[in-house]
Amino acid sequence: MFKKYRIIKWILTALTLIVAILIFIGIYIASLLPAEDGTLVHSQASNITYITKDVPAYRGKILAVVTSTDTMGTSGKGTGYELTELARAYYVFKANGFDVDIASPLGGKPPMVLDDDDMGIFDYAFLNDSIAQSKTNNSLLLKDVKPELYEAIYFVGGKGAMFDFPNNRFIQALIKDFHKNNKVIGAVCHGPAAFVNVTLEDGQSFLKNRQVSGFTNKEELLLIPNAASVFPFLLQDELISQGAAFNEGIMYLEKISHDNNVITGQNPWSVWTMAEAMVKQIGYVPKYRAITAEENAVKVLFAYETKGKKDAKAVIKQIVEDNKQSVSRSLLVSHSAVSVIQGDLKKSYDLLRLASYTKDLELIK
After folding, report:
1. Domain of 358?
2. Direct distance between the N- and C-terminal alpha carbons of the chain, in angstroms, rounded to an integer
3. What CATH number does the domain containing 131 carry?
4. N or C: which end of the chain has fewer CB within 10 A?
5. Per-10-residue mean pLDDT for the chain, 365 residues long?
6. Do residues 180 and 122 share a domain?
7. Same domain, 222 and 341
8. Which of 252, 282, 312 is the last residue of a domain?
9. Which of 282, 314, 330 delimits the end of a domain?
10. Structural domain tally of the chain?
């Protein structure tokens, strides 16, 4: 009987210790995150110098295509286009002298996915931009789009694209027209689903031997373990099966592929570079843009993945002390959480320490 009580006592003590440790870890992680900027939600495009100053003379129009699908198959889970993937490219194009039209398979107001953790000044500015919102809420019907009016086409990501981009005859016609006329075609994350089953005039798959990037199997399955049954296909597998040379970068870090006039990005963190690569491919030098704290965090994470913690710390030091820029601690902490899901506790701890090092340097600055 007394032995039984001793076991219960030890179990309760162990549980109390575990809870205490979890609370301590939670407090520590919270201390690494920057205070929320309450003014961010009120951001205005008119107050962002990159968008308003030294904008080149009008260079033509670019068409952005978003999904009309609001549910992931029969799963019941909501979806749509990714706001950040539209907003950031939209302002890169605008800042470089292009007007932007937005189209979708069904026209009208397409479903949007907004992730509060990823929202930045450009994303909130887009939500507060009456012109951008009017274009988004009244998207053009794809079948009514006249390709000759545009210099380039950009397929925005979002999981909904996996359902209504493939096999859409109007999307296929646009891709073939832009390809035939040597115009730039861009896509990011799930956006390359637009290329699936596109056959050119010579009977060859549009994807045959083409270098492309897109949301990878690893990225998809980490977030949705049963993705193979939720989606019509896994994007990476399908692109490869149709002849693409798939360029897979590090999970959740920037990666683009540039195959002549076709420019693709792996995930949302690739949007800035992909959009600027499109501008360059059209024939213009992209306008200078201050690197965001999130992009700097991606540089740190890339250094960690390829060279280790010591080199990652050196990158942080250079960015904060030499370049007088910020590093997104939130993104470092997010990747630490991803590492826990993957079972890599050492990596998780390393990334938290890098976030702490960043905080210390920024406080000194």
Report:
1. 291-365
2. 62
3. 3.40.50.880
4. N
5. 58 62 63 76 95 97 98 91 98 98 98 88 97 98 97 97 97 98 98 97 95 98 94 98 98 97 97 98 97 96 97 97 94 93 93 94 81
6. yes
7. no
8. 282
9. 282
10. 2
User: Residue 71's beta-bridge partner residues?
Assistant: 78
- Rounded CA-CA distance 290/90 in Å is 16
- The β-bridge partners of 211 are 245
For the whole model, what pTM was predicted?
A: 0.92
User: Cα–Cα distance between 112 and 119 in angstroms, integer?
Assistant: 13
